[in-house]
């Protein structure tokens, strides 16, 4: 395992944040049996481990720890070594691609940035695809719906929402994604139940894999009684978070059974 210094450590982090492969970093913060290890750095890029530990057993244990590191940073014990490391996983932020620059797209763009995502907005109408309408967006693109994703890469960190001005354009985008074999983290499409069913039937009739169709969130969003564009955007964003983080989608009050607990206290017999 080759050693590397702080400049290389920083370079790997910058590359990960700018769209490269995720990297898990570790820094030894405690080593009672070998204080000289404190401050040693390690990095795991999914294929190789780089760093400054000399002990093979400690190296293997540290690699396993970095491989299993999640999104939450913190100090972890390296099993079987007596060493503690601060571990942090660096990855590019999720991408939100909004196809359609109408009324729903504007609040959805703002919510996406609030969530820390990179946001791109696409529309075929130059008068709608303007940076002054989407000041929070990282990119605002005028796209040709005959080839809507020519300037956008769709990958495993992409959340993609189709909210164009017409069902035909949403369908054209779906067909382009299916033809490309795109596999975004989330794919949602607005539309009534009737139109969604018609779109799915047409995709299936054109030979699109039913399992691929089944991964589409349509009609898009959680059922929270949304009516206004901002409320619809909240429902869509909530569904994207749910798809990424997991959960039940139930009100936390019901999930934690708080009311039931309080009622039980009220009806419990008084202690004698």
Provide a short characterization of the protein structure.
This protein has 272 residues and is an alpha/beta fold.
Rg of Cα set: 24 Å
Give a quick account of the main beta sheet: strands, pairing sense, barrel closure: 5 strands, antiparallel
Structural class: alpha/beta
What is the succession of H and E elements? HEEEHEEEHEEEHEHHHHH
Strand line-up across the major sheet: 3-2-1-5-4
Distance between the termini: 69 Å
Unreliably modeled segments: none
What percent of the residues sit in helical stretches (DSSP H or I)?
Answer: 25-40%
Mean pLDDT: 87
Number of helices: 9
* Beta content: 15-25%
User: What is the molecular shape?
Assistant: globular
* Number of beta strands: 10
Q: Please, what is the oligomeric state?
A: single chain
Topology:
Elements: H1 6-17, E1 23-30, E2 41-44, E3 49-51, H2 56-67, E4 74-78, E5 83-90, E6 95-99, H3 105-114, E7 118-123, E8 139-142, E9 158-162, H4 167-180, E10 186-189, H5 193-205, H6 210-214, H7 229-245, H8 252-255, H9 258-267
Parallel strand pairs: 6-7, 6-9, 7-8, 9-10
Antiparallel strand pairs: 1-2, 1-5, 2-3, 4-5
Helix pairs in contact: 3-7
Name the descriptors.
five-stranded parallel β-sheet; alpha/beta; five-stranded antiparallel β-sheet; 272 residues; 10 strands
Explained architecture:
The chain has 272 residues and is of the alpha/beta class. Helices cover 36% and strands 19% of the residues. It contains nine helices and ten strands. It has a five-stranded antiparallel beta sheet. The N and C termini lie far apart (69 Å).
